[in-house]
Predict the structure.
Amino acid sequence: MDYQTIRYEVAERILTLTLNRPQKLNAFNQELFTELLHAFDRADADDDVRAIIVTGAGRAFCAGADLSGGEETFRRNAERSGDAPHRETGGVLTLRIFDCTKPVIAAINGPAIGVGLTMTLGMDIRLAADSARFGLVFARVGIVPEACSSWFLPRLVGISQALRWIYSGEVFGADEALAHGLVSEVHPADGLLAAARALALQIAANTSALSVALSRQMLWKMLAAEHPMAAHRVESRVIRDVAGRADAQEGIRAFLEKRPPRFTASPSADLPAFYPWWEPPRFEG
């Protein structure tokens, strides 16, 4: 695909996905949605990609839905998800990110409003520039939370804070986002990408890609488990599978020999036969 609204750049095994509509503050439209879906599929299939950074071009991360289409914007977005009727596009994208086998870091460089914020909730780690602004403004424009944010947001910041932000629709700064756990770090704007890359490189240089892929899905999927026994069952099954693999043996050798490990397993080829072990609920529109 010839991308028009994003930049796809791989260096040192790190993919940087840049939302690239700076003249529109990277507002979310159908083309951006389609290209991001393609980019995550492409990244999952590429063993040279060990981690993904998502950021924005210019002074914004994403200013929300592109409203230039007028009063029918929200209805059209809800009905044109690309794979089924009656599914809103933000949710389709967030669920694709949710199922990604690579760790995803959001480097929120500027305003992240509406879907510009909710699309990041299924990413693993959110870093923000000190100039970033956030807003869950749905009630102020007559709609409701989207992009699966009614599931993700309370799990990240707690139900009371999630409701406060949703009810008020207020726009708030990076310090407030940090205080409530929405982002894990705040950096000067000119150091944000360097901080995100340092974290991504730490993952790429020191860990097994297969271990990270499995761990990512174990932790995310366990958020909805009713009892820790569900985690015990999955962990036991995965440990039994990976314990005899080459990466586990290499990890022990590297530790004993006091050297960096040289892992070779890949999520594209070496996931266990029972992956995915969960049954995604069927969508009924």
Observations:
- The beta strands are 6-11, 14-19, 51-56, 104-108, 112-113, 125-129, 133-135, 171-173, 185-187.
- The longest strand covers residues 6-11.
- The two ends are 29 Å apart (CA to CA).
